[in-house]
């Protein structure tokens, strides 16, 4: 349960601290546009993404059980957060995030981090691809400049026909900015994999919009100016009825935060030949979500892509994650007005790339051909339920069926039922 920061700090040297500082600044340049884009896609004010990256990112690195984990808002939460805000408002999301944090703290204290091994891998892969598909579908109109009627549903079965029906509103300038951003991100990532190409691509596309006076929607035009300081902590209003109403959402947020953070920590272990402390990591996720909620932020978890960026940039201790959070805070103080010039198609293009990478297309052939038929069916069922039904249903059905299949493979003998003595 001891945070990795306490065990790595005594071993730090000036050179290692400098390496962590460079890595933290590099990751911050990736996290900045992503945090804004994730908040917007979730239906929340853009500033909440930065608040989450700063507050939760700091707490996850300071208290977590991984040497190189980077925390903050992630794409996996977009679907859940959007649904909670649509049904319960932003205040409902904040309370659900606070509840999820408490659940995670309890799970960490009970040393439940090792339970990640019980979640079937096809279920994780299925809902991850499903979430990626939903993110892509939600960002497609902004990326190509299609204007949907007000009140267009977010559900895939209704949104797809709405996008097709509105194809006549396509704006060529927005399409050029969105496609150009995607191409620039991919090209920079391939040419300079250690370079924070995300912010360069988004900033370059936004600069082109401003210099050429293109008729493209910007973050400032749609949402107004970003605040330059963190908000004051506030406890959300609570009642028994409200807590009961939001409990299902809180459980889903806690589940996603726990699963994604531990998956990210395991990936990081392989990259740095380390060993994370799962219960400490879960406990840190809980504290981070409580802290984010008290500051009006979004749910947070370990971010696999940002963690990998941190490792590639030379980060080797939790100091890199702390520097990442502090860098975002400094940029928020010093350059908040500049964020208003960010082009919405550029941010949407960034999320399209994020969704593509999140789905891990390099593994699709293996999912479709390797392993047991039952695993492929389970993955497909979870994916379909995620996209066309509900994430709660997808996870519940997927985990239940996956555990049942696991018990069947282990040839667990059936229970010997006897008539009740009445």
UniProtKB/TrEMBL annotation:
<protein>
    <submittedName>
        <fullName>SulP family inorganic anion transporter</fullName>
    </submittedName>
</protein>
<dbReference type="InterPro" id="IPR001902">
    <property type="entry name" value="SLC26A/SulP_fam"/>
</dbReference>
<dbReference type="InterPro" id="IPR011547">
    <property type="entry name" value="SLC26A/SulP_dom"/>
</dbReference>
<feature type="transmembrane region" description="Helical">
    <location>
        <begin position="92"/>
        <end position="110"/>
    </location>
</feature>
<feature type="transmembrane region" description="Helical">
    <location>
        <begin position="122"/>
        <end position="140"/>
    </location>
</feature>
<feature type="transmembrane region" description="Helical">
    <location>
        <begin position="246"/>
        <end position="268"/>
    </location>
</feature>
<feature type="domain" description="SLC26A/SulP transporter">
    <location>
        <begin position="19"/>
        <end position="362"/>
    </location>
</feature>
<keyword id="KW-0812">Transmembrane</keyword>
<feature type="transmembrane region" description="Helical">
    <location>
        <begin position="21"/>
        <end position="41"/>
    </location>
</feature>
<feature type="transmembrane region" description="Helical">
    <location>
        <begin position="47"/>
        <end position="63"/>
    </location>
</feature>
<feature type="transmembrane region" description="Helical">
    <location>
        <begin position="169"/>
        <end position="188"/>
    </location>
</feature>
<dbReference type="Pfam" id="PF00916">
    <property type="entry name" value="Sulfate_transp"/>
</dbReference>
<dbReference type="GO" id="GO:0055085">
    <property type="term" value="P:transmembrane transport"/>
</dbReference>
<dbReference type="GO" id="GO:0016020">
    <property type="term" value="C:membrane"/>
</dbReference>
<keyword id="KW-0472">Membrane</keyword>
<feature type="transmembrane region" description="Helical">
    <location>
        <begin position="195"/>
        <end position="214"/>
    </location>
</feature>
<feature type="transmembrane region" description="Helical">
    <location>
        <begin position="377"/>
        <end position="405"/>
    </location>
</feature>
<feature type="transmembrane region" description="Helical">
    <location>
        <begin position="326"/>
        <end position="357"/>
    </location>
</feature>
<keyword id="KW-1133">Transmembrane helix</keyword>
């Amino acid at each position: 349960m001891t945070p990795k920061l306490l065990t790595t700090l005594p071993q730090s040297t000036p050179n290692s601290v400098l390496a962590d500082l460079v890595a933290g600044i590099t990751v911050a340049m990736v996290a900045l546009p992503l945090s804004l884009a994730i908040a917007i896609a979730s239906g929340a004010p853009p500033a909440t993404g930065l608040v989450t990256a700063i507050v939760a990112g700091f707490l996850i690195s300071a208290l977590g059980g991984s040497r190189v984990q980077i925390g903050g808002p992630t794409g996996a939460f977009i679907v859940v957060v959007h649904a909670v805000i649509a049904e319960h408002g932003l205040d409902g999301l904040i309370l659900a995030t606070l509840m999820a944090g408490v659940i995670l703290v309890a799970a960490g204290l009970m040393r439940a981090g090792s339970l990640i091994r019980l979640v079937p891998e096809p279920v994780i892969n299925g809902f991850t691809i499903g979430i990626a598909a939903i993110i892509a579908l939600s960002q497609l109109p902004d990326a190509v400049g299609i204007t949907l009627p007000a009140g267009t549903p977010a559900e895939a079965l209704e949104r797809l026909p709405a996008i097709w029906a509105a194809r006549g509103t396509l704006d060529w300038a927005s399409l050029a900015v969105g496609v150009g951003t995607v191409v620039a991100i991919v090209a920079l990532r391939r040419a300079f994999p250690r370079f924070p190409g995300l912010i360069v691509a988004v900033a370059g596309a936004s600069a082109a919009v401003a210099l050429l006076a293109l008729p493209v929607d910007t973050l400032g035009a749609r949402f107004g100016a970003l605040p330059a300081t963190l908000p004051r902590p506030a406890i959300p209003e609570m009642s028994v009825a409200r807590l009961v109403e939001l409990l299902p959402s809180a459980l889903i947020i806690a589940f996603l935060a726990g699963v994604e953070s531990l998956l990210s920590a395991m990936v990081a272990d392989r990259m740095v030949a380390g060993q994370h402390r799962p219960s400490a990591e879960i406990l840190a996720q809980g504290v981070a979500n409580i802290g984010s909620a008290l500051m009006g932020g979004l749910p947070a978890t370990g971010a696999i892509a940002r963690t990998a960026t941190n490792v590639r940039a030379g980060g080797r201790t939790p100091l890199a994650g702390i520097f990442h959070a502090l860098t975002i805070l400094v940029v928020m103080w010093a350059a908040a007005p500049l964020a208003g010039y960010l082009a919405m198609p550029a941010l949407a293009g960034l999320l399209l790339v994020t969704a593509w990478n999140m789905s891990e297309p390099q593994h699709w052939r293996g999912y479709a051909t390797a392993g047991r038929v039952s695993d492929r069916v389970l993955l497909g069922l979870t994916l379909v339920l995620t996209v066309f039904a509900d994430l709660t249903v997808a996870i519940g059905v997927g985990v239940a069926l996956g555990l049942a299949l696991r018990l069947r493979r282990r040839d667990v003998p059936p229970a010997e039922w006897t008539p009740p003595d009445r």
